[in-house]
């Protein structure tokens, strides 16, 4: 169950914004049992986004989640790039246009904007790749899109974290099945790191888990994260590690 | 002056760690006048890292900065992957080995570790791709590497932020020339976003600057960042925007 994440935005490439979206998306996908193989960040550039999407599709993941570049400004070009990458036209989603209209009318009534009219930029957000299902944006104007293309489930989400998170929870995760993974985190005290690898390998052969390890401090502690379909499953693997001589304590981040 | 950034680590792909390293590196490269075109994040997997490096090299940037996966544990495989991607052998850097030895002896004297001996994992860090210049790690054990390969400057840095930042400042940036870019940030109050694009385009034709814009709030404010070689150059472009009717105020992040 391979997945990939793509974030779009010049502000990420200039380092003006730390990309916390990709970590959020990756965490949720991991909890659902997906293995996120790669995260790609590109700018607000149609050709770059297209190239990156085609490269992802060539790696044939089950799921691709894209975030960013759906807004009303001239540099929000992600939907166009997705459509072109998939060889589809952009078509007007009437239902989306109605919702966008209602959204700006509400902002106008509430005094946030001076003009509720659907100018070019606002209308643009109602165009989705042909065949896409619109994803409802409960927190903002731009709808997302869900497209199945050559066996890859593609989700296109806004970049504003509040909008992205709500859409991911409500519109994306329910389409990815019921399976859930839990993560148990431990600190292992260990004086020789080279002892850990064969024991982890043995645990992976015995249990239906994934295990990540990473050094903390100067080689005395190793962070160990066990992913399993249940807390009991993860705990069984943890007890196995302890039986093999690795002293674990629960690690609260 | 195109650049790319690559970060390596399973903890980034599971969402357990937010990748702030790539933003830091991208910001520093942008300040030096580089255009970061893409950020790629891969796991601690030799084949994946190799594939991603070869893809970057195919895009022929001037600079590639890689961060993460240089430590002593079994899943720190970045140097091996870099060497294999470039068709080079890993060779022992004697000078590095001496520094690693001294580093662990100091940790031992200061009571951080129980054993200062150079076991397999610690020795591994002294191996660099053939032809690489070692980069000094003032904050930790693992040296970085600087490799010129087919016209691409490749820098390989540790993933621990404190180590990465120090190495970037002291060992990488001095090798990237003296040119510096400043960024001035503004908030533009604007009621119709579609008016902004042609004015920005005009400014780009008149001045030696880069301009990024991104919506803040619901389309009433646009964040505008002007990159130029001097503060005066950026201010000239800002005054030009104001003359064209865009009301700007300085924006402190």
Structure description:
Chains A, B: This is Damage-inducible protein CinA. Chains A, B: It comes from Thermococcus gorgonarius. The structure is a homodimer of 253-residue chains. By secondary structure, chain A is of the alpha/beta class. Chain A has helices at residues 10-13, 20-31, 46-58, 78-85, 94-109, 120-124, 161-172, 196-206, 231-243, and strands at residues 2-8, 35-42, 63-67, 90-92, 127-129, 133-135, 144-149, 152-157, 182-189, 209-216, 221-228, 247-250. Chain A has 2 domains: 2-176, MoaB/Mog-like domain (Molybdenum Cofactor Biosythetic Enzyme, Chain A, 3-Layer(aba) Sandwich); 182-250, 2-Layer Sandwich (Alpha-Beta Plaits). Chain A has 9 helices and 12 strands. In chain A, the strands form 3 sheets. A 6-stranded mixed sheet of chain A has the order 2-1-3-8-7-6, sandwiched between helices. A 4-stranded antiparallel sheet of chain A has the order 10-11-9-12, with helices on one face. In chain A, strand 10 (209-216) and strand 11 (221-228) form a beta hairpin. The first copy, chain A, starts with a strand and ends with a strand. The model of chain A has no long low-confidence stretch (mean pLDDT 91). At the A-B interface, helix 1, helix 2, strand 2, helix 3 and helix 6 of A face helix 1, helix 2, strand 2, helix 3 and helix 6 of B. Strand 2 (35-42) of chain A pairs antiparallel with strand 2 of chain B.
């Amino acid at each position: 169950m391979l997945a990939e994440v793509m974030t779009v935005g010049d502000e990420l490439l200039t380092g003006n914004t730390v990309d916390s979206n990709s970590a959020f998306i990756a965490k949720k996908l991991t909890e659902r049992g997906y293995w996120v193989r790669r995260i790609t960040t590109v700018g607000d550039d149609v050709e770059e986004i297209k190239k990156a999407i085609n490269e992802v599709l060539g790696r044939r993941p089950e799921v691709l989640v894209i975030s960013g570049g759906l807004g009303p400004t001239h540099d929000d070009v992600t939907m166009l790039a997705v459509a072109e990458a998939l060889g589809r036209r952009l078509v007007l989603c009437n239902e989306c246009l109605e919702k966008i209209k209602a959204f700006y009318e509400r902002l106008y009534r509430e005094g946030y904007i001076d003009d509720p009219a659907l100018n070019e930029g606002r209308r643009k957000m109602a165009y989705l790749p042909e065949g896409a299902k619109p994803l409802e944006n409960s927190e903002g104007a731009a709808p997302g899109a869900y497209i199945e293309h050559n066996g890859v489930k593609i989700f296109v989400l806004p970049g504003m974290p509040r909008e992205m998170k709500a859409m991911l929870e409500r519109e994306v995760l329910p389409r990815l099945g019921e399976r859930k993974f839990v993560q148990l985190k431990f600190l292992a005290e260990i004086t020789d790191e080279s002892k850990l690898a064969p024991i982890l390998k043995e645990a992976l052969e015995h249990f239906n888990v994934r295990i990540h390890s990473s050094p903390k401090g100067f080689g005395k502690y190793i962070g160990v994260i066990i992913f399993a379909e249940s807390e009991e499953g993860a705990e069984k693997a943890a007890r196995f590690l302890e039986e093999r001589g690795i002293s674990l304590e629960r690690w609260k981040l």
